[in-house]
Amino acid sequence: MSIERVTSYGNINISQEAIATLAGGVVSECYGVVGMASQKLVKDGWAELLKKENYSRGVVVRKTEKGMELDLYIVIGFGVKVSEVVSEVQKKVKYVLEKTLEQDFAAVNVYVQGVRVIG
């Protein structure tokens, strides 16, 4: 699943991993987010924090009849308002991806996989 564009200069193909890495970079800059998490919880319910090169494991990109949809799996910091952090992540990721990729995103779903004490 990728984004394909045809221009007068040739074809452009943006891979799912490139989209996921871009989204992961945007998420990691958001206030209250400790990091990206793997889609699958590690044993005993602990979420594994991902490094920059593995952001694609915490992002699912899919194309539906409504348009492109994104699922983000994150870990947030202790003591922050979850609803505010999630709302800001959704807004910022949607804005940056739509401006950067010139592609509409129908939904940005955020799944909080865990809460960590920062410090």
Explain what the structure shows.
It is a single chain. This protein is an alpha+beta fold and 119 residues long. The protein has one domain (3-116): 2-Layer Sandwich (Alpha-Beta Plaits). 28% of the residues lie in helices and 36% in strands. It is built from two helices and six strands. Strands 3, 4, 5 and 6 form a four-stranded mixed beta sheet that branches. β5 (67-77), α2 and β6 (105-116) form a beta-alpha-beta unit. α1 (16-28) packs across α2. The radius of gyration is 15 Å and the shape is elongated. The chain starts with a strand and ends with a strand.
What order do the helices and strands come in, and which of them pair?
Layout: E1 3-7, E2 10-14, H1 16-28, E3 33-36, E4 59-64, E5 67-77, H2 82-101, E6 105-116
Parallel strand pairs: 5-6
Antiparallel strand pairs: 1-2, 3-5, 4-5
Protein name: Asp23/Gls24 family envelope stress response protein
Family: Belongs to the asp23 family.
Pfam families: Asp23
Key attributes of the depicted protein:
28% helix; alpha+beta; four-stranded mixed β-sheet; single chain; 119 residues; Alpha-Beta Plaits; 2 helices; two-stranded antiparallel sheet
Summarize the structure.
By secondary structure, the chain is of the alpha+beta class.
